[in-house]
Design a protein that fits this description.
The complex is a heterotrimer. Chain B has 4 helices and 12 strands, in the order ααααββββββββββββ. Chain B is an alpha+beta fold. In chain B, β7 and β8 form a beta hairpin. The chains are: A mainly alpha, B alpha+beta, C mainly alpha.
Chain lengths: 205, 222, 706
């Protein structure tokens, strides 16, 4: 390759790398704002979880094995997402798609369990306007569920673009943002699991 | 976060992180579900494991630790954690304090009846309604007469002093300083009597904190 | 659900304007819109507007659009203020009410909506807009960058702000009522039980949409400042306005998510019947106050820190000295920012926390005065020994010193819980925060605009009228707000639409109204200042790019910089790099290829959908909500996966543009020379000119050919 073209490519690569760096940093800061939003929901849950308005408390409502199952599913999906990212950085398109597909399925399973849990509560008459406890439970866990849903939508879209365009630098960047998002959702879930589900049994209101 | 050339190390990191996270999930789960212990200690333990798992995932899934370190990201994460502690911790502290002071009337009355508190800071809480007999203790020349009173719950007791100097009446129970019905001491002066409602059962001793010889006791029964 | 409800939700004929102020307001907006539309059509400028401005991702363009929008909203918020002053002046007498009001001329409910709107508009849609406009324009120039880190998100953030602006004015057309709860809509008054109409819903969504825009903007600014500084510019070499902006945006990124979450919770309470802040079923209204002030207090520092930065720049330039104790100045700003998240309870000392909790927050509030004082001392130290020039920016700084100090001192009084128990929610409080916001934020913005106007528009501002505007503002402020302190101490409660005539306070309220009118005159003079400057532009051309003898990099580029800011990014080796360059010789111009982001309409479309979704939430129009949310997703995804968002300006093109610019500057210099002997236009001179032009138009029927 001629010197000029090499210099051009080097210049472009540097440009790309800087943009990549900035995008990841910017997305990280966005994740921090998302964590702060969740902190408000956690604060409300901490303050209001004892206000059961004569209804049932978390201890009576929550099923521990279900919560554990959801936690393990999400944890595994975070792991498979990491593997998928590992493959993407190596440029292995099929492997990447495979591992993200597993992540997608696990995420979908998590959502299904959660929706069924919600439906069960609502069916038994414990809906989100029954008490402050129920409101804060549904909104905290529901917001996490909405984030998971967005993540799945994002995953599906990115996988579709990957199939069409291959693993371009642009797509790999999008995937690293997505995996960052997904890992953070699992970290938030750790605290939901600990404070909401385990907390209901460990620290009855 | 700069790109790393793919290594076995990274794959290793994911697997290690996954296994550790599994462990840090299962331990608190079993601790809680099998009611090994309870209370504040348990809450702190499971929170501790949660924080541990978060660190594991930050280290092994998000590669925070590996070089080149993403210093700015770490700063932002630390700052965010600090802010979260302020938001959540501050809210809990403030609202607990507010609830304690601003408790709605129904809840307060329920507490009053459950714990037999009939007056707070000299103000009647609304219980012990009705007319009840009154007892009097007169302090003269540093001597309280009568030195012992036997009363029924909800009776009233009036301290009257005919001495020039004011008396500061404090209570003890079994030689330990106690407060009576939520009040630690009463000030009695000539012309200014103090009446208390004998809402709490038990035997109490009282004395003037400046002049312990001025003393007596009373028993409240139902 | 009936078909009508499915189609248009809660909308009905009564929602359309049918009261004097809704008809007036809607009519006014329509007239303005029609005038603009006619003008654009006649001058065939629709495409130009779309291409050059609306879809632009150039932070300089976006900055100017923020100024224009913020300026218009300042007029709207100011009108609200005059209405409040008038009501209180009339309502504090025995006079019987007019226009259907019991006292004064506004009904209680209407009055409550006006002061709510006034607060919201001034904080969210004026102050934030001006701050974001300044940062957008000036920070990239100061740090030697061509653009922000995320140009598309910059445009998106601006358009979300506009979405909020439209939403906060939408009630004129549909619904006829705004929130009547005070600017922060405290629960449970703002809950569905006590505010059943659509007013609070408009409140929620205007703040929510623009709040998300602010969060996005804050992230953008932070990454830009941390990652896009010119080579060699360490953090310790950054200009102080950039530092102020950085701290402000760090606070913003921390607390705006809290606002977003709290607004959602309030929305859920109203829409879904949850019990976060209700008085029944275990809800806790005090939690709302707690959360909203966790955002609300840092917000005022978010507005203030960039103003502090402006003052640092202005004091230095107009004392012809570099800032004394740069480090102390930065540490002062850092101290304020760090402590900002530790004082919020001082807004609700009287809500019932016990003495030790109140004492803690009272002490923390007082401690914040210390880093603020440090800042003042660095400015005073800069003034000392300098050769001070009393041009308008310096006047605004001096006015700030006087007024902000009064505000700060009254804040220290309020920080003492027992004193606050007397003064909370009195007019003393209102005077305190207006002193800080007007004296601090607004004067800072005015100083910044006067200081950087030559850079932005290429012409200096008329000094004469500028000075007159300043004096009107200061005198108006004193007439308005000093009596307010007095009234507060005498026991006047805030937010009342009338005060009993027996208090004898009416003369003071009339004085405040006069003060308000003087401020309005001051604002008119500021507009006149701009007009006079444009008329006399030949005399006022800034042909050097450095009209004040500046020290920082923004003065190293020609005024009204090219879209790419710099032909090559300068290398920086010290603070006040431009000053150093002027001493050691300016570098030779060099040319290189420049990557410029394409314009995009995606920001406009996403905001349009966001607005429509918010409108759907307000009126329960479910299909509109769904369609709009889907629309947001689709536009966003398409934009995110668009890999062709930049084009390249070759070095040759840059060279030719610079050459053209040089010719233009040379021509301007000639014109400036010819106009140098013109006397600076006075206010009376301007009025005469405008009248003469108007008469000319009428006599010669010129409108036919417009």
């Amino acid at each position: 390759m001629s010197e000029v073209v090499e210099a051009e490519l080097g210049h472009l690569e540097h440009h790309e790398e800087e943009a990549n760096d900035r995008t990841l940093f910017g997305f990280w800061v966005y994740l921090m704002t998302d964590l702060l939003m969740f902190s408000v929901l956690f604060a409300c849950y901490a303050v209001l979880h004892g206000n059961i308005n004569g209804g049932e408390s978390g201890r009576q409502l929550f099923e521990m094995p279900l919560a554990l199952a959801e936690t393990l599913i999400l944890l595994t999906s975070s792991f498979t997402c990491g593997i998928g990212m590992f493959m993407a950085r190596q440029g292995k398109k099929t492997q990447t798609l495979f591992w993200f597909a597993i992540t997608f399925i696990l995420g979908l399973a998590f959502l299904t369990f959660e929706v069924r849990e919600f439906a069960k509560f609502i069916g038994e008459g414990h809906s989100l306007h029954g008490s402050a406890f129920l409101s804060s439970f549904f909104v905290l866990v529901g917001t996490h569920g909405l984030h998971i849903t967005s993540g799945l939508l994002w995953m599906g879209t990115t996988m579709a673009y990957t199939v069409r365009r291959g693993l371009t630098t642009h797509i790999v960047r999008k995937l690293s943002l997505l995996s960052l998002f997904w890992h953070f959702l699992d970290i938030v879930w750790i605290f939901i699991f600990t404070i909401v589900y385990l907390g209901a049994v460990a620290w009855p209101s | 976060m700069a790109e790393l050339k793919p290594e076995h190390g990274t794959l290793q990191a994911y697997i290690t992180g996954f296994v550790l996270s599994l462990i840090f999930t299962l331990i608190p789960y079993y601790l809680v579900v099998h009611h090994t212990f309870s209370g504040r200690a348990l809450l702190i333990t499971i929170l501790g494991f949660g924080v541990l798992q978060m660190l594991v995932q930050l280290l092994f899934f998000l590669h925070i630790g590996r070089r080149p370190r993403p210093t700015w990201q770490i700063h932002f994460l630390n700052a965010t954690v600090g802010a979260i502690l302020v938001v959540v911790g501050g809210s809990i502290v403030i609202t607990t304090n507010l609830h304690h002071n601003m408790m709605p009337t129904e809840q307060a009355l329920k507490l009053v009846n459950d714990e037999g508190i009939y007056q707070v800071n000299g103000e009647k809480t609304g219980a012990c309604q009705g007319q009840y007999p009154n007892h009097q203790i007169i302090i003269k020349d540093g001597v309280a007469t009568p030195s012992f009173i036997s009363a029924k719950q909800c009776d009233t007791l009036t301290y009257i002093t005919q001495d020039g100097r004011p008396n500061d009446i404090v209570f003890t129970q079994d030689a330990k300083t106690a407060s009576y019905a939520g009040v630690a001491s009463y000030s009695v002066r000539k012309g200014q009597n103090q009446t208390i409602t004998l809402s709490e059962l038990g035997t109490y001793q009282f004395h003037d904190s400046a002049q312990p010889a001025t003393a007596g006791s009373f028993t409240v029964s139902n | 659900m009936s078909v009508k409800e499915l189609l248009i939700g809660k909308l009905n004929w009564e929602a359309l304007p049918h009261e004097w102020f809704t008809i007036g307001g809607t009519g006014f907006f329509f007239v303005i819109a029609i005038i603009i539309a006619v003008y654009l059509t006649r001058t065939k400028r629709w495409t130009w507007l779309w291409k050059e401005w609306l879809t632009s991702v150039d932070p300089k363009r976006i900055g100017i659009m923020y100024f224009i929008a913020g300026g218009l909203m300042l007029l709207r918020g100011g009108l609200d203020a005059i209405m409040i002053w008038l009501q209180q002046a009339l309502g504090s007498s025995n006079m019987h009410g007019v226009l259907g009001a019991q006292h004064g001329y506004l009904t209680s409910d209407h009055f409550q909506q006006i002061f709510t709107a006034h607060g919201n508009i001034m904080v969210f849609f004026v102050a934030m807009a001006f701050v974001f406009g300044l940062i957008n324009y000036i920070v990239p120039l100061q740090i030697g960058a061509r653009d922000l880190a995320f140009p598309f998100l910059n445009s998106l953030g601006f358009w979300l702000y506009i979405g909020g602006v439209v939403m906060v004015n939408m009630f004129f057309l549909f619904g006829g009522q705004y929130a009547a709860t005070g600017w922060l809509a405290i629960a449970p008054l703002s809950g569905r039980e006590f505010s059943p109409g659509v007013g609070v819903d408009y409140w929620i969504w205007s703040l929510q949409i623009s709040g998300i825009g602010s969060t996005i903007g804050a992230i953008n600014f932070i990454i830009t400042i941390l990652k896009m500084r010119a080579k060699g510019m360490k953090l310790s070499m950054m200009p102080l306005f950039t530092w102020g902006s950085l701290f402000s945006m760090l606070m913003a990124v921390t607390v705006f998510p809290l606002l977003t979450a709290t607004l959602f919770l309030m929305f859920f309470d109203r829409q879904l019947g949850t019990h976060f802040f209700t008085t029944t079923a275990g809800g806790d209204p005090m939690m709302y106050t707690n959360l909203i002030w966790m955002w609300g207090h840092p917000e005022v520092y978010i507005l203030m820190l960039p103003a502090f930065g402006v003052f640092s720049e202005v004091v230095s330039t107009f004392s012809r000295k570099r800032v004394s104790s740069y480090t102390s100045n930065v540490l002062g700003m850092a101290g304020v920012s760090a402590l900002a998240l530790s004082v919020w309870l001082h807004h609700f000392f009287t809500m019932g926390a016990s003495a030790d909790v109140n004492a803690f927050f009272g002490v923390m509030t007082m401690i914040i005065a210390i880093p603020t004082a440090v800042l003042f001392f660095t400015w005073i130290a800069t003034l000392k020994g300098g050769r001070i020039r009393f041009e308008t920016p310096m006047l605004w700084f001096l006015g700030f010193v006087a007024i902000f100090t009064i505000g700060g001192l009254s804040g220290l009084i309020l920080a003492i819980p027992p004193a606050d128990f007397q003064l909370h929610n009195s007019l003393f409080l209102v005077a305190h925060f207006h002193s800080n916001v007007i004296g601090g934020v607004l004067f800072g913005i005015f100083a910044g605009i006067n200081y950087w106007f030559p850079k932005i528009a290429g012409i200096k501002l008329n000094e004469r009228i500028g000075r007159q505007a300043f004096w009107c503002w200061i005198i108006g402020y004193c007439l308005s707000f000093i009596p307010m302190y007095v009234l507060g101490i005498m026991g006047a409660t805030r937010r009342l639409d009338h005060y009993d005539a027996s208090t004898g306070w009416q003369p003071l309220f009339i004085m405040m109204l006069i003060g308000g009118i003087v401020i309005a005159i001051g604002t008119a003079l500021q507009l006149a200042q701009i007009l006079a400057s444009v008329i006399q532009r030949k005399r006022l051309y800034d042909t050097t790019g450095d009209p004040w003898g500046g020290r920082t990099l923004e003065w190293s580029v020609p005024s009204a910089p090219q879209s790419y800011n710099f032909t090559t990014i300068p290398e920086v080796s010290s603070r006040d790099q431009f000053w150093k360059m002027k001493q050691e010789g300016l570098p030779e111009p060099a040319y290189e290829d420049i990557h410029i982001p394409h314009n995009t309409a995606a920001g406009i479309y996403i905001s349009l959908f966001a607005f429509l979704a918010g409108f759907g939430f307000v009126w329960d129009i479910i299909w509109l909500i769904v369609v709009s949310l889907v629309g947001i997703l689709v536009v966003f995804i398409r934009r995110a996966y668009n890999e062709n968002s930049e084009y390249t300006l070759t070095a040759a093109e840059v060279r030719s543009r610079e050459a053209t610019r040089k010719e233009k500057i040379a021509a301007q210099r000639k014109e400036a020379l010819a106009a140098a002997d013109e006397e600076e236009l006075s206010l009376w001179g301007l009025i005469k000119l405008v009248l003469a032009y108007g008469l000319d138009v009428v006599r010669k029927r010129k409108w036919r050919t417009w």
